[in-house]
Design goal:
- The chain has helices at residues 3-6, 29-35, 44-48, 51-63, 105-140, 147-180, 191-209, 228-245, 283-286, 298-303, 310-320, and strands spanning 15-19, 24-27, 66-74, 79-91, 94-103, 187-190, 212-216, 223-226, 251-256, 260-262, 267-275, 324-330, 334-342.
- It has 11 helices and 13 strands.
- The chain folds into 3 domains: 3-103, Beta-Lactamase (2-Layer Sandwich); 104-180, Signal transduction histidine kinase, dimerisation/phosphotransfer (DHp) domain (Helix Hairpins), CATH 1.10.287.130; 184-350, Histidine kinase-like ATPase, C-terminal domain (Heat Shock Protein 90, 2-Layer Sandwich).
- The protein is α+β, with helices and mostly antiparallel strands and 350 residues long.
- The structure holds adenosine-5'-diphosphate and magnesium ion.
C-alpha cells in the first residue's frame, strides 16, 4: 500500500480500496472485521459477493464516478446494515475505487421500532373500535326497537370506549414522561402519605377481591426529591398490577424502607416494595415486562382492562427520578416489584 492508501488505517469506519485491476489494495481493521478476513490482494468479487455492491464497484472502475450501494453484514450477534459510498479516485499510479462503509443499523432499528409501535397502537385501538362499529350497526338495525338490548349494548359500548380512552391517556402519558426524562424533579415528596393516599383509592377494589393491604413503613417521615403525581402513578400502577395479576387471596405487602446507602445508586436511597402472593411471572418474561405493550398473557391482560403500557410508564418515571426498578418472582409464590429511589440530588449532576 502506498503512503496515501495507508491513511485508511486511521479511519474509524470500514474502508476498502480496489485497484484498477479489480484487486483489493488494502482495507482497514473495521473492514476486515466486517468482511471477516484480511482480503488484501483478493479480487473484489470474491471478497464482497453482494450483487448491488459488486455492480457499483464494476461501474465505478469503468467511469471513475461516485455511487452508493447497501451492504448487509453480521457482527456475530445480529444483522447489520451498511450504506457504502463507492467513489473513483485518480491517484498518481492509477484509478482506485474507495469503498467507505457507514453503519445504518441503528437507523434501521429505530425505523423498525417506530413501525412496530404504530402497528401495536393501531392493533390495540382497532379491537374496541371494531366492536363499537358492530354495536352501532346492531342498534340501528336489529335492535332498533328493543330497549333492553339497547341498554345492554350501550353498556358494552361504554366499556369499549373507556378502553380506548385509557389507551390514549396512557400513550399521552408515556410520551410526556419520555419527554421529561432528562429533567430531574426537585420537590420534596413524603412517601408515607403518598402510599396511604394511593392505597385509599384502591381499597374498594381490594375489598371486592377479598385482598388486604399489609403496609410496613418506618415512623420517621421518608422524603425523596420527586414529582408527586408521577410517583403516585408508579405506586398505583404496581399495586393495581398486584391486584389484577397477583394474588387471588392473601395480603399484598407494601413495604417502605428507611433511607440507607444503596450500592446500585452509589448514594442514599429508599426502597419501596410491592409484593403479592399470586402465581408469579415466568423468568423469561421478567426482563421484557417494561416494554411497551408487553403482556405475559395478552388475552387475560386485555380482559382485565390492561393496556400493557403501565410498567413502561413506571420505568420511565423511575428513570426520571434516577432510580431503579427491580422485579423478582418465584413461580407459585408471587412477584416482588422494588423501586429504589435516591433521596437527595447528590451524585447526579447531568
Ligand atoms: N404482580 C404481577 N403478577 C403477575 N404478572 C404481572 C404483575 N404485574 C404485571 N404483570 C404482567 O406484566 C404485564 C405488564 O404490566 P403493565 O405494563 O402494568 O400492563 P397492564 O397492567 O396494562 O397489562 C401484565 O400484562 C401482566 O401480564
Ligand atoms: Mg398495569
Amino acid at each position: 500500500m502506498s503512503d496515501t492508501r495507508a491513511l485508511i488505517v486511521g479511519l474509524p469506519n470500514p474502508v476498502l480500496l480496489v485497484g484498477a485491476q479489480g484487486r483489493i489494495q488494502g482495507l482497514n481493521g473495521p473492514a476486515k472485521r466486517l468482511i471477516g478476513t484480511d482480503a488484501t490482494g483478493w479480487h473484489y468479487i470474491t471478497a464482497l459477493r453482494q450483487p448491488a455492491l459488486l455492480d457499483a464497484v464494476e461501474e465505478t472502475l469503468k467511469d471513475g464516478g461516485h455511487r452508493h450501494a447497501s451492504y448487509l453484514g453480521n457482527d456475530g450477534a445480529r444483522d447489520t446494515t451498511w450504506n457504502v459510498s463507492v467513489r473513483g479516485v485518480a491517484l498518481s499510479d492509477g484509478l482506485t475505487v474507495v469503498l467507505s462503509f457507514q453503519d445504518m443499523t441503528a437507523v434501521e432499528e429505530a425505523g423498525e421500532m417506530r413501525r412496530d409501535f404504530v402497528a401495536n397502537v393501531s392493533h390495540e385501538l382497532r379491537t374496541p373500535l371494531t366492536s363499537l362499529m358492530g354495536f352501532i350497526e346492531t342498534l340501528r338495525g336489529p335492535a332498533k326497537n328493543d330497549t333492553a338490548a339497547q341498554d345492554r349494548f350501550l353498556g358494552i359500548m361504554e366499556q369499549e370506549a373507556g378502553r380506548m380512552y385509557s389507551l390514549v391517556e396512557a400513550l399521552l402519558q408515556l410520551s410526556r414522561v419520555e419527554g421529561q426524562e432528562r429533567i430531574r424533579p426537585t420537590t420534596k415528596v413524603g412517601l408515607q402519605t403518598l402510599v396511604l393516599e394511593v392505597l385509599n383509592t384502591l381499597q374498594s377494589t381490594a375489598d371486592a377481591k377479598g385482598l388486604r393491604f399489609d403496609t410496613q413503613m418506618p415512623d420517621d417521615t421518608v422524603e425523596v426529591l420527586g414529582d408527586r403525581d408521577q410517583l403516585w402513578q408508579v405506586i398505583s400502577n404496581l399495586v393495581e398490577n398486584a391486584l389484577k395479576y397477583g394474588a387471588t387471596s392473601g395480603d399484598i405487602t407494601i413495604r417502605l424502607s428507611s433511607p440507607d446507602y444503596e450500592p446500585t445508586l452509589l448514594q442514599s436511597g429508599v426502597r419501596l416494595c410491592v409484593i403479592d402472593r399470586g402465581e408469579g411471572i415466568p423468568a423469561h418474561h421478567i426482563t421484557r415486562l417494561t416494554e411497551r405493550f408487553y403482556r405475559v398473557d395478552s388475552h387475560r391482560g386485555r380482559e382485565v382492562g390492561g393496556t400493557g403500557l403501565g410498567l413502561a410508564i413506571v420505568k420511565h418515571i423511575i428513570n426520571r427520578h434516577r432510580g431503579r426498578l427491580r422485579i423478582a418472582s418465584t413461580m407459585g409464590q408471587g412477584a416482588e416489584f422494588t423501586v429504589i429511589l435516591p433521596i437527595g440530588a447528590e451524585g447526579n449532576s447531568e
